[in-house]
User: Fold this.
Amino acid sequence: SGWSAVFHDGTLGIGDQSNSDDEKMLIYPNPARDFIKIILPEDLTVGVLLIHDYAGRFINKSNVGPACHSRIMHIDIENYPAGIYNVEYQSNNGRIIRAGFIKVIG
Assistant:
């Protein structure tokens, strides 16, 4: 098990995932240095994955869906500054799942 960075009601903190088990978006390793893997729910639909820094600045956008042929996304974060990041999955049908990760230097 362990700890994770989690987005709760507009704030990012350390704790358990806020989504129910069937709506989890898992991020590992967390904290991370060079890359993260994001595992999306099995029933994902077409949508986008957005990454913002703790100040809310847009960092990255990736398309998500059946055409990707995988629920696992590999994101290179090597050039991201150290800090806390928010990850949000937005489906085309309005479903939103949030999680977060910590980028460390080392």
